[in-house]
Amino acid sequence: MDPKLTEVAQMFARFKAAYARNDLDACVTLLSQLKVQLTKFPSLPPLFQQAPNSVEELKLARDIYEHAVVLSVKLEDQDAFERDFCQLKPYYMDTCGIIPPSPEEYPILGLNLLRLLVQNRIAEFHTELELLPVKALEHPCIKHAVELEQSFMEGAYNRVLSARQAVPHETYVYFMDLLAKTVRDEIAGCSEKGYDSLSISDAKQMLMFSSDQELNQYITEEHPEWEIKNGSVFFQKAKESQPCKEIPSLQLINQTLSYARELERIV
Amino acid sequence: MPEDVQMNDSEPQPAAPTPAAAAPALSTLHHLKEIASVIEAGSLSKEVRRISRAVRLTVALRRRLAARDVSAFLGFALPASSEAYARLTALVPKEDDTEMDVDAAAPATQISIKHGLPEIEIYCYLLVLIFLIDQKKYDEAKACATSSIARLKNLNRRTVDVLASRLYFYYSYVYELTNSLAEIRGNLLALHRMATLHRDELGQETLLNLLLRNYLHYNLYDQAEKLRSKAPRFEAHSNQQFCRYLFYLGKIRTIQLEYTDAKESLLQAARKAPTSARGFRIQCNKWAIIVRLLLGEIPERTVFMQKGMKKALTPYFELTNAVRVGDLELFRAVADKFASTFSADRTRNLIVRLRHNVIRTGLRNISISYSRISLADIAKKLRLDSENPVADAESIVAKAIRDGAIDATIDHANGWMVSKETGDVYSTNEPQIAFNSRIAFCLNMHNEAVKAMRFPPNSHKEKESAEKRRERLQQEEELAKHMAEEDDDDF
What we know:
The complex is a heterodimer. By secondary structure, chain A is mainly alpha-helical. Chain A folds into two domains: 3-195, Serine Threonine Protein Phosphatase 5, Tetratricopeptide repeat, CATH 1.25.40; 196-237, no CATH class. Chain A is 67% helix and 3% strand. Chain A is built from 13 helices and three strands; from the N terminus they run H-H-H-H-H-H-H-H-H-H-E-H-H-E-E-H. A three-stranded antiparallel sheet of chain A has the order 1-3-2. In chain A, strand 2 and strand 3 form a beta hairpin. Chain A starts with a helix and ends with a helix. Helices cover 68% and strands 2% of the residues of chain B. Chain B has helices at 2-9, 28-45, 48-61, 67-77, 83-91, 98-108, 118-134, 138-152, 158-177, 185-197, 201-217, 221-230, 239-255, 259-272, 278-294, 301-304, 314-325, 328-337, 339-344, 348-369, 375-382, 389-402, 430-452, 466-490, and strands at residues 372-374, 408-411, 416-419. Chain B has a three-stranded antiparallel sheet with strand order 1-3-2. Chain B is elongated and about 95 Å long. Chain B starts with a helix and ends with a helix. The chains are: A mainly alpha, B mainly alpha. At the A-B interface, helix 6, helix 8, helix 9, helix 10 and helix 13 of A face helix 20, helix 22, strand 2, helix 23 and helix 24 of B. Chain B: GO terms for molecular function: enzyme regulator activity. Chain B: Acts as a regulatory subunit of the 26 proteasome which is involved in the ATP-dependent degradation of ubiquitinated proteins. Chain B: Residues 243-424 form the PCI domain. Chain B: Belongs to the proteasome subunit S3 family.
């Protein structure tokens, strides 16, 4: 076996050992060294040069990046997640036929979908979704993310929250917790428009707070315009569109003049 | 350009294009020769218009092309010693030559062209490529396309651009037919760069569309959008290419949830496309229907009843019906029934997105019909099947209220929804705004139509007197200045 490959493989073994004993600092240092080492393999994307052990190299590199993605979730570092995922993606998309698909592929793709959902990047969520073949949509991890998005769009928020109990992969918990926060903000926004008032206990239950104090704190921080009195939360309605009393004369004059000008051009 | 010099060395013949009237029996070969003389005239007078005409004439001939016509034409148009001749004749299948000689001998004396014009050479490539594609000889077609592209890279003449853009198109088409579009992506990008450097706008337009098509073939919407937003834009040269561009743009925007813009692009593409491009218009309509549904609009029945599209649009008609009624059960049934059609159209994921619109419409119907209704009834009517339908219904209603789909309030303690009285729309500014947007649309349409009109240059020079012409030009100039000022005002 190629000495360089052996060296990287050994380093990766050390990384895995550190990961297993949950020594995250050591993991991070080893990972950055590994990434530097990977740049020396010409068979990796974007060059894809043919080499005798390119299959091993590609497999190893994919494995390393998969671990990097999972590690970034553990570190709760969303930016690192995005970077690592971008590096990993070519291995899933462009190496068909060179190396067999990874068993981790769909869980990680699902994780990425979830991340986009949490960050409310719905357009990118759908762009990624289009890239997946039909059979991928059947996979529990992908399906999980897709169903979440649907419930989210519909407004069935308790379905989103109950999905946390049924995560298909342990790494998903971090993002599901983040999602819960997003959902709370959404519910608060909807309640504001949908209700005139809510009793404190109902509001507490809806916004998933365990104590009145937490609710009070949330209201003072996020929605200071809400009012609490007589054991209920009163939402301040945004002003309704009033019937217009005044004719917007200036605007009308402008519009009419432009019609006249355009018509003159036609005739 | 060394290549050009070499080409000109080969025995120049006197250029003498003769009008077609002389030939009594117009064989395909004869037509081809006429086209060649049109190209030659275009090349010598540097008139791109003539070359476009030659391409159009070729397309008309396409069905009648036979192997012997093509090889006879190659013998006629290319010097036998040239590299292109050797390469192209090898690609055209051989047939018995006896007939050919009889046919070719007579008209050859009437039309002869100057050898060695690069336009003619490129035209030969194009002709052979079209012929090979029609004969379904894809491997040969690929070889022909590749060598023509290699040749094009060494040419920089504006009169070749029209032919080149057609060649690019067929180049990509062959690879699409053999399902290997990914292979040529790098090549197309290089060609696009070259066209940009040469200021070949038609080529840029064509290649950009081919690249977008290439990306979208593999659902690479992200890359497509990145390329599209960075590529230089200019006024469209070819209506067909512009239609395609609009269609791809519409698709990208649909995926990225910019429905309003997507609708505009798709409808414009469908409207601008020539009536003969039925398949293209059907595709545009399919996407436009979905986008309109996603926007919460219901397309009119006439959209589905357009001539020649009724059958293709049936699945979408039933889908629209389900959304209109707001019945989740029916929607699911339709989606299942036509699942294969939707997968083939690659609209499956979009239809999944529609589910939420179905619920919205259902909810709106309920809100209009009832002034007060319990949440449990709403859940039943919407057929929400989950563990906790009432809570689901409550949050769905809350979201619909926030998004402005319905005008109501929820009473949590009693568990019901109270619809608000619909106010008098005519007491607000709404009608005025709607009126303005419609007028603006019509005026814009008129201006676009005026701008889109094309006239061949110098066509009525002879008929007009000098004075009249001056007058007309002055008027035109004034009008143009006026329009330019208007445009500036708008920004």
